[in-house]
Amino acid sequence: MAQIARLIMETASSSRTYTTKQVAPLLQHKNFKLQAAVSEFQKTIDELPKDVTRPFPRTCNYNSAKKAYMLGQQKVIDAQRQLIDSVKNKPEEMIDAEFHPQSVPAFAATEISHYLNAKYPDYFYKEATLNPTNPRNRSTDWETDVVNKFRAVDTLTEYVGSRDAATGKVFVLARPLRVSNVSCLTCHSTPDKAPPEMLKLYGSANGFGWKLDDIIGAQIVTVPMSVPVAAADHAWSKLNTWLGGAFLGIAVAANLGMAWLIWRN
Question: How far is CA 38 from CA 56, 75, 76, 82, 127, in A?
Answer without folding.
Answer: 25, 19, 16, 12, 40
